[in-house]
Known about the structure:
alpha+beta; CATH 2.40.50.140; DNA polymerase, domain 1; Helicase, Ruva Protein, domain 3; 3 domains; five-stranded antiparallel β-sheet; flat
Amino acid sequence: MIESLSGILLEKAPGHAVVECHGVGYWVQLPASAYELLPAEGRPVRVPVHYAVTVDVRSGQSEHRLFGFINAQERALFRQLITVQGVSATLGMAILGTRRAEDLRGAIVAGDESALRGIKGIGPKLAQRIIAELGPVLAGVAFTPAPAAGNTVRSEALSALVSLGLDRVKAERALQGVLKEHADGPPPLEELIKLTLKNL
C-alpha cells in the first residue's frame, strides 16, 4: 500500500494536485479545503495518501485512485467516514472539504447534524448514521492537529492571529495573500504576523 508521496508539487487546484516523485507525476484527489494549505507549485511537498482500487463487476476493469490529505489525522478521519454505509470515497472527500478535520470531528462527537446536512449528498438519515456510528468512536480518539510539511510557520501564524481575536476566515485570506507575495519561502513568524495584520 502507498503510504505517502514526497516530491515536488507540479500542479495544484481545488480538488487535486500533481506530485512528481522521481520523474513520475502522480495525480492525487484532495479535499477542496486543502488547496490553500499546500505550498506553492515547484516546492517540495509530502502528502499522506489513501490508495483505493475499485473493480467493475460486469467488465472486470479496475480503477486505481489516490486520495491525498493535509496530514495523517485527516486521512484517518476519511477512513472512518467511508466505513459508514452510504459514504463513498467521493462523498468522504466532499465532507472533509467543508471544514477542518478537527472541527468536523468535534461536530460529529457533539452530535451536530447541521454540520453534515448542509453537504450535498447527505440527508437527515445519513447524517444521523454518521453521528451514531462515529461519534462514540471519535470521542475516544486523541486528535492533535498536525500541520502539513512546509506549512508550520503558516499554521503558527494563523493560530496567533486567531488568538488575537481576529476572524479566522479573514485571517486566512490575509495570510494567504502575504504568502503569495513570498512564493520563495515564508518570512519569519513574527514578520509574517505583522505583514498579515497590515494586509487585513
